[in-house]
Design goal:
It contains 3 helices and 4 strands. With about 110 residues, it is α+β, with helices and mostly antiparallel strands.
Length: about 110
């Protein structure tokens, strides 16, 4: 099985406190721990930022960027969980190219 690195950006509704941001990160971490060969490499909380345009009548949200490594090929359950979470305004999951993941120290170049 091939290990892959992903970057996940989550925007949490600005009406929620920092505790809700931590709760969302905890749910992502919990999902990763149930998947064999998966781990959360880093969590970068950017804090509250203004949106480039209004989303759902909101102008700002809490931004969090997560880097994760997993053997899991199907990330649909994670994305579904984030889509269904009312406090999550937007999320974006991208698979990092192997050379970028190696540069960031997430994967061993091979």
């Amino acid at each position: 099985m091939t290990t892959r690195a992903y970057e996940l950006m989550i925007i949490v509704d600005s009406d929620h406190e920092d505790a809700m941001v931590d709760n969302v990160v905890s749910r992502v971490e919990a999902w990763l721990t149930t998947e064999e060969g998966s781990s959360l490499a880093s969590t970068d909380k950017w804090g509250k930022r203004k949106f480039a345009y209004e989303i759902n009548h909101k102008t700002e949200g809490h931004y969090v960027v997560l880097e994760m490594v997993t053997d899991q090929r199907d990330m649909d359950p994670l994305e579904r969980m984030l889509r269904l979470a009312d406090e999550v305004v937007r999320h974006k999951l991208i698979r990092l190219p192997d050379h970028e993941a190696a540069r960031r120290g997430l994967l061993v170049a091979g």
